[in-house]
Amino acid sequence: MKFFDTHAHYYDERFAAESPVPVDALINTLMAGDVPYIINVGTSPVTSRMAIAQAAEHPGMYTAVGIHPTDCQKISDPDAALSEIEELIRDKNSKCVCLGEIGLDYHYDDTDREKQLYFFREQLSLAERLNIPVCIHDRDAHGDVMATVREFPGVRGVLHSYSGSAEDAVTYVRLGYKISFSGTLTFTNARKPRECAAVLPHDAVFIETDCPYLAPHPHRGTLNHSGNLIYTNAALAAAWGTSPEESAAVTLDNARRFFGI
What we know:
By secondary structure, this protein is an alpha/beta fold.
C-alpha cells in the first residue's frame, strides 16, 4: 500500500528533539517506502519558508504556505506578512500546491477572534485571486468557519484533521471542499469522526498525520510521522466497510488529483 500524507509539519522542533534519526533521514526512509507524497504545511511566513527549504530536498514533498490562526496573534504587520505569503505562493521554486494552514481557533479564551477572522478572510481572498486551494484549521469555531467559507464561493480546499459534524462535512463537500482525517480517527472515543467518514463520498476524503502531533492509536502520545498513516487508513477502511488496500488507493488518488500532482 502507498499513502499520501496531505498534512505534515516536518520542520517542527519536536523532530529534532525526539526523533531517533535526523529528520531528513526519516523523510527519505518514509518516501522510499509507503509514503511517496507528503505536503509540508507552514503556519507563518517563517515556518512556510522552513517547509519550502525541506521540500526542496525531497522530490515527493510539496508545500502549503499560510498563516495559522494562532500564529497570526504574534504578527504586528499583517500587510507585510500577507504579502510575503503571496510571494511564496508565486515563487515557482516553492513547490506550493495549497494556501494554508489558515482558519479559526477559538479553543483559548484569550485569543483575538477579530484578528483571526481578518487573516482568514484575507487569505481566502488571496486564494480566490490566485486560484489555489486552501487548507483550513477549525478548532472550536465550526459556525464561524462555515459562515466565512460561504463568503468565498469561488474557493475550494480541504478541512484538515476534521472534527466537525457529519452534517457540516456533507455541506462542505457540496461547496467543493474535501475532508481530511488524521490519527484522531483511530481514537477509542472518536465515534463522531468515524460516523462522518462513513457517510462521505469516497472521492471527497484524504488522510493525514498532522505530524509530529496526533499520533494514532496504538501510538497515541508519541512523536507522530507519516509511517503511522497505516493506522488511520485502517480505521478509514473499517468505516467504509472496504479493504485497507482500497482506501489507501482511493485517498492517494484523491489527493494527487486535487493538488495537481
